[in-house]
């Protein structure tokens, strides 16, 4: 009964449909949609991609020019032996006073030499540094400097009461040994690291100090650090900052740390050296440096308006006419993040902060009257635009978007010099920083392209001042490497995890099970799949010859996306 009724309804619908005066020609509809898509492609998509190609090539040439300039400067510095102590006056502290004293009055000479040592404040900001607080405090307290001419200031912002108690007891232990060490805490964590450093300068005993040596909690300076750096400030009144080089104790822990070593070695050996030699300016690295307190005050003190308070202070100081000097022969031991999660958060801060600072200071830089026109151009164009904006932008847009998309568009042609020659020269210029890792260059470039996804997002966030612009995530050292790598000098590497500064760290309180879908990085997986699909299309249809690069670059995204980089987090 119901079956025959259903058949009757179907027949009636078919009869009414047949009587309609309008017929739908689906083939014609599809042809119209195809024509519209082709018109949009010709009018919008192809011109837009061509514009991206032109912009990417222009930025690539900018980066090439900057790398060649840096290489030429560093080559000249080495060829003519233009070391910092040859460009600026450098004499051992106390030598002049001792020589001026009577030769037959040895005691008078020693007293004069001791009095020549200026008062130095050593600041160590800390946040829940359970595993490394002894190393950093011990290294600072072992600096060769008259005990009555140095103050060690531990700025403890720890939220873990157990860690805070341990740090305080460590300071009391060194006090018992006669070291002038101060343990300082504050009632709130406003401004994070910048706030702690600013608060530390308000104490009365700081008024007696002329210089500040700064070390993050995982940094361990050699005992002669002050003896080799402070003389630059004492004998050259125009110098505000002496920056030293980082030495990485866990660089061989995994591929992730090797890649970081390659990037940072180039930054210190070449970028910092070139900035110091030509412009007497570079970005302060936030640690392992010595500042003139008068320069900090002249620049307006510490500000917490961005997540790169160190760079903010450096830019404001140079706009006041102060000079910086980089001393690469002095190395300070430190650690590298060994988990990808920690490294990704660090890179977000290092990419977002500079872009945000550039937005806040671009007009101020151009309007400044205290520095030369060329120094302003260097600061605005070379340091900020090329180094902090273009480098992040072109890496992702060009290598991870434009080249894969061009495979799908036969109208798009990228010149060979822009695909092969220029990128090769840029890579070789950067790879010379770590010759021992030259065999890892291809893997390093692929990884840097993957990281450009996060860096461009962070840079855009900083420019637009969007959601995560002021996000600050600290890397908490676990010290696991100390248990696996023996080191007679006590410079063992440590692993890191990252913890939001607003989150108290109470270790081993409870175990939290990681959800299956939280283990992977879906943005990397998505980009990797898209690039690999472009590679297959190139093999089957486009025949542009990009497929080898597309396959290995897509695979690199997938490897990182499935978290097969770095050590496994605890």
From TrEMBL:
<feature type="transmembrane region" description="Helical">
    <location>
        <begin position="379"/>
        <end position="409"/>
    </location>
</feature>
<dbReference type="GO" id="GO:0047259">
    <property type="term" value="F:glucomannan 4-beta-mannosyltransferase activity"/>
</dbReference>
<feature type="transmembrane region" description="Helical">
    <location>
        <begin position="546"/>
        <end position="567"/>
    </location>
</feature>
<feature type="transmembrane region" description="Helical">
    <location>
        <begin position="421"/>
        <end position="447"/>
    </location>
</feature>
<dbReference type="GO" id="GO:0000139">
    <property type="term" value="C:Golgi membrane"/>
</dbReference>
<protein>
    <recommendedName>
        <fullName>glucomannan 4-beta-mannosyltransferase</fullName>
        <ecNumber>2.4.1.32</ecNumber>
    </recommendedName>
</protein>
<keyword id="KW-0333">Golgi apparatus</keyword>
<keyword id="KW-0328">Glycosyltransferase</keyword>
<keyword id="KW-0961">Cell wall biogenesis/degradation</keyword>
<keyword id="KW-0808">Transferase</keyword>
<dbReference type="InterPro" id="IPR001173">
    <property type="entry name" value="Glyco_trans_2-like"/>
</dbReference>
<dbReference type="GO" id="GO:0071555">
    <property type="term" value="P:cell wall organization"/>
</dbReference>
<feature type="domain" description="Glycosyltransferase 2-like">
    <location>
        <begin position="211"/>
        <end position="415"/>
    </location>
</feature>
<comment type="similarity">
    <text>Belongs to the glycosyltransferase 2 family. Plant cellulose synthase-like A subfamily.</text>
</comment>
<keyword id="KW-1133">Transmembrane helix</keyword>
<feature type="transmembrane region" description="Helical">
    <location>
        <begin position="51"/>
        <end position="77"/>
    </location>
</feature>
<dbReference type="InterPro" id="IPR029044">
    <property type="entry name" value="Nucleotide-diphossugar_trans"/>
</dbReference>
<keyword id="KW-0472">Membrane</keyword>
<dbReference type="GO" id="GO:0051753">
    <property type="term" value="F:mannan synthase activity"/>
</dbReference>
<keyword id="KW-0812">Transmembrane</keyword>
<dbReference type="Pfam" id="PF13632">
    <property type="entry name" value="Glyco_trans_2_3"/>
</dbReference>
<feature type="transmembrane region" description="Helical">
    <location>
        <begin position="520"/>
        <end position="540"/>
    </location>
</feature>
